[in-house]
Amino acid sequence: MQRIRELDEHYVASTYRRQPLTLVKGRGMFVEDIQGKRYLDFVGGIAVCSLGHCHPALTKAISTQAKKLMHVSNLYYTQPQAELAALLSRVVPKGIDKFFFCNSGAEAIEGAFKLAIKHTRRQRIISMQGSFHGRTAATVGATWKSNYREPFEAIIPKIFDFVPFDDIAAVERAMGEQTAAVIVEPIQGEGGVNVPSNDYLPGLRKLCDEHNVLLICDEVQTGMGRTGKWFACEHWGVEPDEITMAKALGGGFPIGCLGAMAEVMNSFSPGDHASTFGGNPLACATAKAVIKTMTRLKLPQRAAKIGVYFKRRLDELTDKHGCVREVRGLGLMLAMEISNKQIADAAVAEARDRGFLINCTADKVLRFLPPLIVERKHIDRLIEALDGILTEVEK
Length: 395
Ligand SMILES: Cc1ncc(COP(=O)(O)O)c(C=O)c1O
Prior knowledge:
This protein has 395 residues and is α/β, with parallel strands linked by helices.
């Protein structure tokens, strides 16, 4: 542990605030540290490892494809990329039928912005307060937190108009002649698991239609079954013009994807956008296995059902502990807002000591994003531990 920590601190850029934990193995719901201690994982690589760790269907898909063909170039057709696109078209919201593959969420969103600007020939994008869309120049520009943006102002495009989340009237006021698109996370993730009111997404859709503006749903965190539907916008029956995915699409293997209506995606011509690794055979074979396994195990439906149980159990703690402000979320994207950051941070550390990985976002929001294979017995163990943890940290 000490040696790895020293190597990391010496050689790796200090962009992450790491916890004192070196993880070496994972299986299903559990990860193991270098000392052999096991943890129940309620972080899931931040909504990535939805099939759990090292699912046999994924390790098989990766090793089979690795022996066959790992990488060529987008100069050529490859079977996994074409087949993944066809498979995706069956699970994404209606209307989305063409895909551009890349390597991360931010890259998918950069592509979405370029496409919106090219398609509409307009230059501005409306984004939400509390949003998170990534760390590249354009995506950090669309991200609400000013301390993420300010040191890098020089390279950030000045094309974003921020409006409060869950406020249709504010979006209407911000719409202008140059508005190309509105980007929204159907449920804000890093912003603290904020679920909008039921008329918000449909209202955005209507407003975008009225103004001929594209609606981009950023489903990098909410997508792939996390909230109990394949994509969160489906909870409100909304069909976006563009959708972005990453995280759970590869189940742990890096891949990102921009999906759009063919009419919109066809505004891209050869040379408009590209990525060397985007859609590479290894990543696409893995994502195909993710979709097939999720479909076979009915994981979106499972997330909906077990998420109700998990939320109810978290709610029980609200009544018992004064530091719990609110429990919120949908499916297996759940959060418990704590009265202050100090208590929330202490809860994460105490949980770790007791063998549970949980995450804190937006300063004081404990966030739970377990693999979608989580069982009631795992939830019960966490709730029992959390009861003790909150009692301890409230002292
Ligand atoms: C909603 C959302 N969009 C975009 C991103 C950026 O994705 P990546 O880190 O893969 O670039 C994230 C990452 O947390 C996210 O939650």
